[in-house]
Amino acid sequence: MSSHQFRNRGRNMMSRVNANSIVVVSSLKPGVHVPSCLVCCNAPSCCALCGILPCCNIPEYINIHREASKYIYIRENSIEWNEPEIVMQDGKCFGVDPCVYQVRDNVKVLYYDDPIFDRISDKV
């Protein structure tokens, strides 16, 4: 059997170059977290909860992990990006540890033939 028999004619997802994969055409540099103008320090790593105070930024280790996880890929049929979330680590206080945070991936994909794609604009 040839691979053409299994082609999805309504929504071609596979690459034009290699029928068994989707090619990443380009990669963009994602934005960088900018703290507010009131921030004068980073919260200590032993008490990340201090990062909710207006004068404290999130701990440095969290910021490093979050920035390292960000990416934007432009593929042949879609755009994929990761906006990592900061969440509390699992623990014994109602199932979480409020003093230790971790970064969780939040990957989103937008296909070019999605109806919402036509409504995206850089204007407000």
Task: Provide an overview of this structure.
The structure is a single chain. This protein is mainly beta. It has one domain. The protein is built from one helix and eight strands, in the order E-E-E-H-E-E-E-E-E. Strand 4 (71-75) and strand 5 form a beta hairpin.
Oligomer: single chain
N→C terminal distance? 51 Å
State the helix count: 1
Helical coverage, percent range? under 10%
H/E topology pattern: EEEHEEEEE
Alpha carbon gyration radius: 20 Å
In the sheet with the most strands, the strands line up as: 1-4-5-8
Record field, number of beta strands: 8
Strand content: 25-35%
- The low-confidence parts are 1-11
Largest sheet: 4 strands, antiparallel
Offer a few descriptive terms.
124 residues, mainly beta, four-stranded antiparallel β-sheet, two-stranded parallel ribbon, 1 helix, 8 strands, disordered N terminus
